[in-house]
């Protein structure tokens, strides 16, 4: 069975400090965006308001260090022809997650966990994707 998990940055100091990543079940109710998680340090299911612009879903893949890969992560991919850097995106036309690089989209079916490493994400480290001239 596929694990459904989301992450986003906290916008309230309740469960974690503002700006920290929270993980769990993402919902939007009455214009409020929240992550629910039964493992937060409170009784039963707790929730935390989050920035909807930072929400990313776990894609069901791990990197070489066994870290979960989320939409919005920046990865290095070690390919037969060299190293690629890109961000994890959802492609509506192909109905799946891909690594978007300067060369195009790379499907995760073409990548082994041992060949990819998370180096950051588009929210905390957008400079990693800047072209160096």
Characterize the structure shown.
- This protein is an all-beta fold and 133 residues long.
- The protein has two domains: 6-54, no CATH class; 60-129, SH3 type barrels (Roll).
- The protein contains no helices and eleven strands.
- It has strands at 6-9, 21-29, 32-37, 46-49, 56-62, 68-70, 73-79, 82-91, 96-101, 104-107, 116-121.
- The strands form two sheets. It has a six-stranded antiparallel sheet, with no helix packed on it. A five-stranded antiparallel sheet has the order 10-9-8-7-11, with no helix packed on it.
- Strand 3 and strand 4 form a beta hairpin.
Mean pLDDT: 89
Number of helices: 0
Query: How would a textbook summarize the main sheet?
Result: 6 strands, antiparallel
The strand order across the widest sheet is 4-3-2-1-5-6
Order of helices and strands: EEEEEEEEEEE
Instruction: Flag low-confidence runs.
Output: none
Instruction: Say which CATH homologous superfamily of the largest domain is assigned.
Output: YopX-like domains
Can you give keywords for this protein?
SH3 type barrels, 0% helix, 50% strand, 2 domains, mainly beta, 5-stranded antiparallel sheet, 133 residues, 6-stranded antiparallel sheet
């Amino acid at each position: 069975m596929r694990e459904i998990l989301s992450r986003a940055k906290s916008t309230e100091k309740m469960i974690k400090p503002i700006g920290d990543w929270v993980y769990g079940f993402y919902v939007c109710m009455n214009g409020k965006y929240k992550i629910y998680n039964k493992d937060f340090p409170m009784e039963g299911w707790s929730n935390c308001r989050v920035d909807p612009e930072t929400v990313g879903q776990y894609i069901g893949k791990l990197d070489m260090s066994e870290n979960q890969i989320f939409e919005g992560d920046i990865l290095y991919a070690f390919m037969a022809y060299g190293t690629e850097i890109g961000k994890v995106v959802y492609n509506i036309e192909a109905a799946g997650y891909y690594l978007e690089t300067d060369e195009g989209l790379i499907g995760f079916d073409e990548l082994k966990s041992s060949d990819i490493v998370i180096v950051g994400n588009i929210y905390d480290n957008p400079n990693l994707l800047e072209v160096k001239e």
